[in-house]
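Step 1: inspect the first sequence and its tokens.
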Amino acid sequence: GDEDHLGDMDFKVTGTTKGITACQMDMKIQGLESSVLTEALMQSKEGRLHILGEMLKTLDAPRADYKDHAPRIVSFNVPNDMIGAIIGPGGKIIQEIQKTTTANISIEELENGEGRVEVTSDNGTAMKEAVDWVKKIAFPPIVEVGETYEGKVKTIMAYGAFVEIIPGQDGLLHISELAWDRVEKVEDVLKEGELVKFKVTGKDPKTGKLKLSKKVLMPKPEKSES
């Protein structure tokens, strides 16, 4: 600008109400009197305080969060051995998270042996949902035998249903554990995708799968006297 072409000095100052945070000066002359520098700093302070005062009229405090549709990115580390669980077979889990939340997720292995997850989204709600989902898989709570949970029916088989206990971990709800009365078909009681309450009753010693029961949460019918 003209101040660079015609002037002897170009002086920029920035800061807060508490003081100067940065300054930059370009000079075409050999020296500068202290009185000129003092006057310039006083003028910059007056101008800075005026601008900050006008800004405070519009926004008197920092926002607690971005606007909901502002682009954002969240990165965090996860255990390296949990990367596979987050991605899932053939990318099934990570694709499900992205499709459900609309957030974009990338994962890379770091040299320190950890995994780095990066979640991006232009929606605050979607971002939180995706981050929470990934963290539940990467840092799963311990499933306790004897505790009651609510999970989604993932797959129905002739002998029972596989139900998600927590993200990334499921168990078998055998057809004999659906009700106290005899159940002919699993589909008569459950549908894929529905939420069901159940109790974790143990672990199959052969398959290692957690065993679930729905009927133990129901009143046991009294035996009729013959």
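Step 2: inspect the second sequence and its tokens, then contrast the two.
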Amino acid sequence: MKNKFTPLKACLTLLFAVIISSAFAQTPFTGPSDAVTAPPGSAAAVSQVICSSGQIQLKTTPTAGYTYQWYKKKTDGTMQLVQDGSSSTYTETPTGPGYYTYQLVQINSTGCTSASSDPFNVFVLPPITAGITASSSNVCASGQTSATLSATPVNGSGYTYTYQWTRNGVDIPGATSSTYTVNESTAGSVTFGVTVAYTLNSSCSSSTTTTITVVPVPTKPVIVTGP
């Protein structure tokens, strides 16, 4: 008797194939290849340093008839294929700070495969939020008293920064340390600000402001005879 391939058997065969394929398919790897190692000592130590809000955008010089296999390093050190096709570019949105490591293989029209490229290491910085701590919210005019403003970066511990202080929105020449001393001669309100940027990439920055009240100095008293 002939073994008929019924529609039911066809459906079961297809279902089995899907199950097997799903079992062996790799889940696309997201996140940094290494989120534990300390930040690089300088931007030159890695291929690229980007902000937390940026995108990883990689490319190679395209060649007609070539296909490209983009690989990403996983946390266990193995490389996973993340893109396979005719595109000579690869884009990824980072999900957290750390090192993201990639390699590329190109294949010509006859199936000949190149050696893997050198690793391309992208370091993604954590978000940064600038804060200002003031020793006092007011000072006396004519420089009688002063206040010390301290910049306090948040979410970026273990990094080095650059600083630029402003007065009423204008950069203060030479005010590039983490603190600034306020001395004012004229009574009123003055807005001081600071921009804190990563040394590894100065475009990754945060700014904030605070207001200092300059209190007028009492007028010089005059003594007269009494009562």
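Step 3: confirm your contrast with the notes below.
The two ends are 135 Å apart (CA to CA). Helices lie at 7-24.
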